[in-house]
Design brief:
membrane; 8 helices; two-stranded antiparallel sheet; YgaP-like_TM; single chain; Oxidized Rhodanese, domain 1; alpha/beta; Rhodanese-like_dom_sf; transferase activity; elongated; transferase
């Protein structure tokens, strides 16, 4: 079972009529750069459906809306909630990108290098290093390039990027004002 979706404009209208709980499952650095007003940051890699649902107290019977950059991570987060027995979760179609491009209110902060770009930079560096070491030091160093290439293929096939998950945990990808795994606007 997959979670239902809602358009950014429809969610914005619902939020104007009353409180709607919205969590943003991107990394703290992505959240710090731009996020929907009043969205609470709960990074996907640290997401605990039980803790979030317990913290909601009186609004636990109301839908929980989940947003990310484009909708993919929010879908994975919704799957985690459903697997934990909480089925009243809704994925925001198109994520923060669609929200902002619809002209809806966002909070903009410090600009960062996207996680996707960081992965491309890191992978390119490792491939180049492996190739140069393979040519000038020992042919076995070409294995570094092969390993990175295999990792990129795996990431493309499974839509899971180990390098991206590791980079997301680096200090420069953490927001300084977060505590307990959540950041609030």
């Amino acid at each position: 079972m997959s979670a239902p979706t809602i358009s950014p404009k429809e969610l914005h209208e619902r939020r104007q009529q009353g409180q709607c709980d919205l969590i943003d499952v991107r990394t703290p650095a992505e959240y710090r750069e731009v996020h929907v007003t009043d969205a609470v940051n709960q990074p996907l890699d640290r997401l605990s459906p039980q803790e979030i649902m317990q913290a909601r107290n009186g609004s636990a019977d109301q839908p929980l809306y989940v947003i990310c950059k484009s909708g993919t991570r929010a879908g994975k987060a919704c799957d985690k909630f459903i697997a934990a027995g909480y089925e009243n979760v809704v994925n925001v179609e198109g994520g923060t990108d669609a929200w902002a491009s619809s002209g809806l209110p966002v909070v903009r902060g410090k600009k960062t290098i996207s996680l996707e770009r960081q992965v491309r930079i890191c992978a390119g560096f490792l491939v180049l290093t492996g190739a140069l070491l393979g040519m000038f030091v020992h042919p076995y160093f070409a294995g570094i390039s092969a390993f990175v290439g295999a990792g990129l293929m795996f990431a493309g096939i499974t839509d899971t990027c180990g390098m991206g998950m590791m980079l997301a945990k680096m200090p420069w990808n953490q927001a300084g004002s977060c505590s307990g795994g959540s950041c609030k606007a």
